[in-house]
Design goal:
Helix content: 40-55%
Distance between the termini: 52 Å
Largest sheet: 7 strands, mixed
Strand order of the largest sheet: 3-2-1-4-5-10-11
Shape: elongated
Strand content: 15-25%
Number of helices: 11
Amino acid sequence: MTDKKIEPMEQSYEIEDPVRTIGILTSGGDAPGMNAAIRAVTRTALAKGLKVRGIRRGYHGLLKEEIIDLSARDVSDIIQRGGTVLQTARCKEMRTEEGQQKAAAICKKYGIDGLVVIGGDGSFAGAQKLSHLGVRTIGLPGTIDLDIACTDYTIGFDTAVNTAMEAIDKVRDTSTSHERCSIIEVMGRDAGYLALWCGIANGAEKILMPENNNYDEDAMIKDILANKKRGKKNYIIINAEGVGDSMNLAKRIEAATGIETRATILGHMQRGGSPTCKDRVYASTMGAMAVELLCQGKGNRVVGYKGGKFLDFDIEEALSMKKQIPTHQYEIAKILAL
């Protein structure tokens, strides 16, 4: 990928005009599969005769005019790589009206009349503002947290949950050898989807999630002791980042039970690694769909996956939706842990 910055274009346009130049940026936390989306947007747009411009470091880079031309070759050999070749950052300035107007002006300065934003809810809020200022925007859900309400799938979740699952399997092996209780903290910010999926996939005895954070610690301690009495060699607790306090919880459990208890925080390893087939295919499909929507004259939309279909939603509608942990899955997890 070339690092050569491009010169701005002295160009004005109306939002009704056909799209001629598409910009791409990744914003917020990185997620495996973002590169597949970047590649799909770039090559689909080029195939339609459009120009493509990559924006480095998200909205921060947009405001700093870190803008480069992208060719088909620039996005070759990236689909299997984790992270994002465009890099990413968080940008407080983009939350201000002044920052939003500056970003829209820079898009117009560089001839970017369609912008694909790959990120989460915060990134979509910025895309919404740019759309109101005359820049067509399409959001692609890129977050390992699976916390975007309009979609059943987010780019990066599948890779992250598989990374966490494999790590937890390894922790269980050593936990069994030492007859320990293990608390394994997974990411997810204020959402418990990674914890829930890992809890079911890894056969955890307990899942702690921010959506159901009224667990009875005394009851859990009694359950640990009961399992030990039945001859169980380990006890696995999956703890969501939004609950936290894993280290202190481990100390309290060990003090109350006399069973050696260790806390493992998986951390940012869950963000990295080569994306799974699902993340590559779904991200590629969403990237191509984003270009098609822009070519249809649409903007202020979010691409999602719902009920087995790829769909698009109005950004305002998407941001207003609330997502809940599936109650039946949580109940299944509790039954299977008996």
